[in-house]
Structures are given as structure tokens and as C-alpha cells.
Amino acid sequence: MEQEKFSAKSCPTATEYYPASSRPAIPRLRLIAIVLLTTLLLAACGGSDAPSSDQEEAPAAADTATPVPEPDPTDTPEPAPTDTPMPEPTDTPVPEPEPTDTPEAEPEPAPTAAPMEESESAEGPGMGQVFVIVAEESEARFSIDEELLGQPKTVVGVTNAISGEIKVDAANPAASVIGPIQIEAGTFVTDNDRRNGAIRRFILQSNRYQFITFSSTELSGMPDSVAVGDEVEFEVTGDLTVREVTNPVLFIVTLRVISESELRGSAATILVVEDYELRIPDVPSVANVGEEFIVEFDFVARTQ
């Protein structure tokens, strides 16, 4: 380099360069330099405190510096979203519990019924078994004596409009129950239509009292047991209601056990006309009507 070739002796001093007559005064130059330095320092360190007019007149050092461009926030490129794939669910099967070899509990056998004692008679109807009267094969009737046109006559009225049941206790037949048994009062038929009308309207008054009813209260003379094929005769005491008049009556009953599901029998009793306040209408052709009359039942009863 050429600057390296110069030596200290080759460089002229200020005294040599400026002639004595043209050299400025040293103190004046120092004063000017101090003022400039002070101005520069004030502009660089605290120009905001000076009046605005001073700031315009004295250019700050910052004005001479090359401005650094501030980044525009809108120009900042946003990072492009990455298409990082989401982990797909795995189809790893959940292991099912293995069946245990514990054997299932076997159901306990149902207790067997105790064998029936001979006294309960397996051949007869079951204990407390109910037999229902079959109306089409049964009949209720009454019979009473009178004189018709001076001639003795027995008047018979019949009906099969019967309903009721018989509860048989084969182990203790005396505990069996007959009834309630009902008869439709307006259904009795005799051999004369005029008599039929008189019985319905005047004697039984069936338009007001529809049913004749019987219910047993006691069975006596029953055997110790009953079996299929037996025929037994016993007495049944009970209450008989006619036209809201109730009296105790006793029927003589004959019963045959046809099978475990069928009974056949008959029953009969004698009633007094006055006991039931029955009034026989006065008819010129009828005389000497009996004070008593017979009531009978022939019945068939079967289990349902």
C-alpha cells in the first residue's frame, strides 16, 4: 500500500502546512469543536426534552443513520399447515374371556308327594272336589193332592231350571256340602195351562220372587269313606227359601258315585203349605187341596 511507504518524516505538520499568517487561533477552534460535540450529544441522548424548534434546527444523529426497516406484520409468512396424518385406530380385537369349566348347578329334584293313605281312597272323588249340577239331565218337582170336579187328583209340577253344586270330601264325607241350589220358580209346568198360570202369578209370585233356594247345613248318616260304585243314603238338613220365607227342612238323599267325575242322586222331603204362607186361589172346580206337598229332586252332577 502507498500509505505504508510514507514515514513520519514525509508527513508535513500543521506548522509547515499552514503559514503563520493564515493559521487560525487555537482557542477558537477548540470552542467550536466543543459546541459541536455538545450539540451532537444532546441530539443523540435526550433530544425529546428540547423544544421542537431546536430539534428541527439541529439534526439528530439518528436522522443521519440508515433507517432499519421494520418488518410488516402482514408480510410475515405463516407457516404452511402440515398434513401430519392422525394415527388410525387399530383393529386389535379385544380378547374375549375364556369360558370357565364350572359346571352348571343341576336343579334339585322336586319333592315327591307322600303316598295317599288307604283311608283317603284313591278310587273315590278327590278331597274337596266340586260337582256342578247338569240342568238338562236333572229335574225338580212338587206334587200335591186335590179334588178336581169332584174327582181325586195328584197335581205334579216339574222343571229342569236347576243350578247349583255339590262339594264332596272323600276323606270325610260328613264334611261335604250341598248347595246353594236354585230353582226358577216361574218354570214349573203341570198338565193344565190355567193351573200353570195360577201357580206362577198367585202361589209362587215368580214375577217378584224368581228363585227357590236350598243350602245344606248338616249331613248325617254318611259312611266313613266313599268310593266309585258306592251308593249311599243319608240325611241333609238345610234352609229352604220360598218367597222370602225360610224354614229348615230335612231331605232324604240317595247318592250313587258313577265315576270320579260324575254323581247321580235323588232327594225328597215333605213341606207344609202354611209354613211358607202359600195361598191356594179359590176355584169352583177345585176343592180339598192338601195341606202338605212333596218336593223331590233327581240330579246329575259332574266335575268341570
Automatic annotation (TrEMBL):
Region Disordered: start-end pairs: 47-124
Residue ranges with Low complexity bias: 58-67
Organism from which the protein derives: Caldilineaceae bacterium SB0664_bin_27
Pfam families in the record: YceI
Biased amino acid composition, Acidic residues: 98-107
Compositionally biased residues, Pro residues: 68-97
Domain Lipid/polyisoprenoid-binding YceI-like per the UniProt entry, residue ranges: 130-302
Recorded family membership: Belongs to the UPF0312 family.
Cross-referenced InterPro entries: Lipid/polyisoprenoid-bd_YceI, TTHA0802/YceI-like_sf
SMART domains documented for this protein: YceI (SM00867)
Listed name of the protein: YceI family protein
